[in-house]
Amino acid sequence: MRIFDPHIHMTSRTTEDYERMYSAGVRALVEPSFWLGQPRTSVGTFCDYFDAILGWEPFRASQFGIAHFATIGLNPKEANDPRCREVLDVLPRYLEKDRVVAVGELGYDSMTPEEEEVFEAQLALAVTHELPALVHTPHRDKLAGTRRTIDVVNASGLEPGRVLVDHLNEVTVGEVAGSGCWMGFSIYPDTKMDPHRMVAILKEYGLERIVVNSAADWGRSDPLLTLRTGEAMRAAGFSVDDVDRVLWRNPVEFYRQSGRLEIDDLDETVGAVAGATFEGNSVLRGSRD
């Protein structure tokens, strides 16, 4: 089983997670920029973070046979903080980077006017830079937020087929299914979706324009829940080809719209490359370092 995790926050994970993910079949992933758990206080802290997920994290992933890409944006939660507005001014230079395959995460957290203004501005950047967009739906009042998201996308000039609306569930999937946007589902141990609920949605809505991710941030999460979803699909009667479509070909199809997704010749070598360093640092520790 080959897996492309289209939404996973590896900056919050350990190197051991990369090893486990490779063993589970993960060969490529996309890391969206997101809220780190506490407020950032200046644009410089965002720049350091963007540089890390475009530099150190791709190196760290490569040492375990995984291709790493990113989405860059001002996240919805911090869109409300006036100290973060300058981030919009630096986004254009980051959106030109080779490994940036979409603008995101963007969208709503609490559905404030400030969030909508920043959401619209970043959709406009996606149009200008000819990139897809990864959209975060709010944790509260999710149905209203999803409906408003679709309205804003429709008014943006960005083709719905270039927009992935994420963190969906049984309540919101129908709204996005009819919009032409892609549908994303985050599989979590306790919240959002689980593998068996995901299988039920696939049975009802089919496989087209659907991607499954682990998100796997600093909260209670599991980077192997993409694998568990594939196993649940097989147990429910889906074919090997069906699983490959959901866990590999669909995310490849969506992010390939960026023109920057280079995964045809992935390095299948597992294990850290001897002597490889990034800024003088390796991923090895202890007696092997």
Describe, in plain words, how this protein is organized in 3D.
With 289 residues, the protein is an alpha/beta fold. It has a single domain (3-259), classed as Alpha-Beta Barrel (TIM Barrel), CATH 3.20.20.140. Helices cover 38% and strands 14% of the residues. It has helices at residues 15-24, 43-54, 56-62, 87-94, 113-128, 142-156, 173-177, 195-205, 225-235, 240-255, and strands at 3-5, 26-32, 67-72, 100-107, 133-136, 163-166, 182-186, 210-213. Strand 5 (133-136), helix 6 (142-156) and strand 6 form a beta-alpha-beta unit. The two termini are 32 Å apart. The mean pLDDT is 91.
Short description:
It holds the Pfam family TatD_DNase. The chain is an alpha/beta fold and 289 residues long.
